[in-house]
Amino acid sequence: MITTDVLVIGAGAAGLMCAAQAGYRGKSVVVVDMGKKPARKILISGGGRCNFTNENTSPENYLCQNPHFAKSALSRYSAQDFIDLVDRHGLQYHHKTLGQLFCDNSAQDLVDILMTECDWAGVTLELRSEVLSVTKIDDGYSVITNAKSYQCKSLVVASGGLTMPKLGATAIGYKIAEQFNLNVLETLAALVPFTLHDHDKQRFDGLSGISLLTEVTSETGTRFKENILFTHRGLSGPAILQISSFWRAGQAVTINLLPEHDLSETLGQWQREQGQKSVKNLLATLLPKRFVEVLVKDGVIADKPIKQLNHQDIAVLSDYLHAWQIKPNGTEGYRTAEVTLGGVDTDELSSKTFESKKQQGLFFIGEVIDVTGWLGGYNFQFCWASGYACGQAV
């Protein structure tokens, strides 16, 4: 039986941050993880370069049943705080659009920083360790893994969500919460591509790889202006991943295919200046040609000179392209999702320390709880912030 002050389940972003902070405070800390190596999700995120934070982070960038829950942690450990940390280690990184920061070389550089922090803080890491049971004991918790048995005063669950099962994602965090009578909200795959119904898949067969700037709106009115991407299964791209967190089965999404144009105005101008040219050829200057051809085949776009369109034709075509509606069949699920929506109910936790209100010494941080960020580094920033807050409290 190994005795430690703090046992962290999960060597991901939140778990490693928490472990280092607790270690620096003089606590003995052990991190257990099922994987062969730590931080596997960091390593594959952002195409292997990890979008590790977002300079624009605010509580408004998160979905949670209690929208105020994330405020405390995010204010106490900001994106700038994490940037200062990686700067001290000399990480080479670059800025992308919308406040996103990525590693220049490889996400491994970021993992190395986290492991160095844990090393300096005296943290012990035990890999290939599957948690088999958790039991409350007089002065803390007993945790048995396939390799060893532990006793700890504070138990931190940083086991992540259900996304990317090939990396070893399991429901262990939710099971521990339920074991101690904490409410767990329904979980769903989020930041995930849409699949389409067969009839739409057939319509758009051949468009795979086409990307265009759009504004996508959910039935709740949430909107994102970014690219969409046609795939052989359906729709992806940043705007689709963003809106997927706000979409539920059976709902439609509305896509403005020309958010930078007023199509009625443009069509009128074309009529005056290029009346002999065909509608389809002119629209192919604004939209991908293959996509225009699909809409011609569907009868949405008339294959005739633009001067032959009347006012009603212009209004109908403009409305269609500015508010194209599509009803997804579903999503690609946890296999390709970036995060898990839902999880441990934040009403069960202290927003300052992430400790269970019902169960002293039991903490939940990171993706396992019901806080889900937008695409663009927000989820990692919440992992750093919740890990930091918890590490100061255990």
UniProtKB/TrEMBL annotation:
The cofactor required is: FAD
Record's superkingdom?
Answer: Bacteria
Q: Which UniProt keywords apply?
A: FAD, Flavoprotein
User: RsdA/BaiN/AoA(So)-like Rossmann fold-like domain: from which residue to which, for each copy?
Assistant: 5-392
Pfam families, per database record: HI0933_like, HI0933_like_1st
Q: What is this protein called?
A: HI0933 family protein
**Domain RsdA/BaiN/AoA(So)-like insert as annotated: residue spans:** 189-339
Q: Which InterPro entries does UniProt cross-reference here? A: BaiN-like, BaiN-like_dom_sf, FAD/NAD-bd_sf, RsdA/BaiN/AoA(So)-like_dom, RsdA/BaiN/AoA(So)_Rossmann
Give the matching SUPFAM superfamilies: FAD/NAD(P)-binding domain, HI0933 insert domain-like
